[in-house]
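User: I'm curious whether this sequence folds into something compact or stays loose and floppy. Could you predict its structure so I can see for myself?
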Amino acid sequence: MTQTMDRPTPNRVPEVTLDFWLIKLMAVTMGETAADYLAVNLGFGLTATSLIMAAILVAALVLQFGQRAYLPWSYWLSVVLISIVGTLITDNLVDTFHVSLITATLGFGLALAATFALWFVSEKTLSIHKVFSFRREAFYWLAILFTFALGTAAGDMVAELFGLGYLATGILFGMIIASLGLGYAFLGLDPILGFWLAYILTRPLGASFGDLLSQPHQYGGMGLGTIITSALFLAAIIGIVTYMSVTRAAKSQPSL
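Assistant: Here's the prediction. I'll summarize afterward.
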């Protein structure tokens, strides 16, 4: 007699742990600097670069959707690419089509809210602990894309349009995230709401520090450049994903 019916359906996204937030923050930081590097240095222009990276993202998501359970390298490859594409989408709207940062922020906020509404109506939950079907994963990745685009627009709006600068903007969003953590720990903040708010806000947090490291001194940065900054964070991401893959494989081995 098989035990297929008794076996829980595996989740396709990772557990929310310290490793999760650490690598997510690095991914969004790299997404900001890598998008800047690709748009400027490839020589294809912002729109063509966006289309090329979107095609690569689609290929990565096809690979990700083919997994029946969470696989670290496939999942985080998709996150890094969607971070880059989300940044390029916002940059295209602002720089190519001259959409204001305020309008972009409001537009992506509404798009994300609509995604969550459709997700909840369809699935009756927004929990990332229950992403085990194609439809739920599709809603999940669409929401992730809009969080990156929204976070890029909001971060640029605060840092550039409102004139706070990269460091102050990073500190501001870091304090907001910390307050969400305190709200969850001591004030009964709903964990799903708290997770998604933190997920959105880590984008401008990481992007602000990415710009701080990579931008020239005359623009308020430290002048490391997009190549060095992107390479540093990519190396850290690869190291953490490798560690996660090895430890996950070790845990799955039967004890003797």
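Summary: The chain has one domain: 10-245. DSSP finds eight helices and no strands in the chain.
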